[in-house]
């Protein structure tokens, strides 16, 4: 049992584990079951009910109390991409150009114009990170005036937290946090 499935997903990610996370919650008519397959800590497949890919991953990542099991597949090769078909997402191999790529941190990132998603090229979660201007804004707050919520979010962004973790820490919903992230990115303080 867990009280927050996002914590389990994060542990698997930072542990670079390969395997299948199987989850369920509810009973009888309310029973929901799903799974996420990981390769080297990266989510490569997700399914719950009729949803799959990004939609399934985002839905599962919001689950609170649920039952789970993780079957380790170390040494086995699995697909290296998430099978997304989202028309909003732009990444190599999908007739679009990746934006916001960053090779200096734990994951490459892609801006989707909507809610935060997984980068299909690497199958990794997107982790917003501060730019040099963002670091300077925190070191010299008198030079760049930010509203309190944006400054708080900027402090939490470390290149290792995805939007779900940021929303939980900010005690805000995903849409509110995405709006703040978009504002910070337009200001040049972060990249998504």
UniProtKB/TrEMBL annotation:
InterPro entries: PatA-like_N. It holds the Pfam family DUF4388. Residues 5-76 form the PatA-like N-terminal domain. Residues 81-117 are annotated as: Disordered. Residues 81-90 have a biased composition (Low complexity). It comes from the Bacteria. Residues 91-114 have a biased composition (Polar residues). This is PatA-like N-terminal domain-containing protein. It comes from Reticulibacter mediterranei.
């Amino acid at each position: 049992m867990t009280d927050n499935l996002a914590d389990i997903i994060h542990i698997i990610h930072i542990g670079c584990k390969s395997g299948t996370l199987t989850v369920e919650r509810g009973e009888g008519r309310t029973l929901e079951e799903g799974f996420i397959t990981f390769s080297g800590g990266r989510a490569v497949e997700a399914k719950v009910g009729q949803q799959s890919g990004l939609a399934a991953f985002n839905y599962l990542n919001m689950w609170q109390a649920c039952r789970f099991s993780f079957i380790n597949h170390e040494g086995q090769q699995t697909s290296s991409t998430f099978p997304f078909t989202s028309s909003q997402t732009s990444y190599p191999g999908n007739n679009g150009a990746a934006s916001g790529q960053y090779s200096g941190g734990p994951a490459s990132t892609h801006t989707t114009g909507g809610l935060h998603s997984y980068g299909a090229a690497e199958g990794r979660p997107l982790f917003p990170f501060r730019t040099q201007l963002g670091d300077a804004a925190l070191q010299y707050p008198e030079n760049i005036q930010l509203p309190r919520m944006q400054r708080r979010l900027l402090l939490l962004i470390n290149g290792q937290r995805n939007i779900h973790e940021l929303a939980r820490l900010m005690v805000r919903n995903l849409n509110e946090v995405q709006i703040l992230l978009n504002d910070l990115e337009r200001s040049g303080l972060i990249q998504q």
